[in-house]
Design brief:
This protein is an all-alpha fold. The chain is 75% helix and 0% strand.
Amino acid sequence: MPKPRLASFLLRIGIASVFLYAAVASFLDPASWIGYLPSFLREMFGATLLLTLFSLYQIGLALWLLSGFRAYRAALLASITMLAILIANSGALDIVFRDIAILFATAALAALEKPSVSLGIRN
């Protein structure tokens, strides 16, 4: 397996495992995870419904990453998700500081998977 493909594969597994863990853990112990959701969204949608929807979203995103299908788009969405999590929880940086590394891992995956644009010019 070429190194870029191996790197992409390893990044996809690592990132997907983070999303899967968080989703499963939130189903098993929702009280420990509800506090990470923005309060204005909890008030609009209800904490339990919002956590369930976000957990299902995370499972879907993890499966998409694992599939490798349009990996650039999946990595871009994962990056946006991680950035949103960091912004929403910036007051708890001592807890979510690891998410910075995950954000950069998603950005690295996006960089690896970015389709090259061909202008039809040959060297």
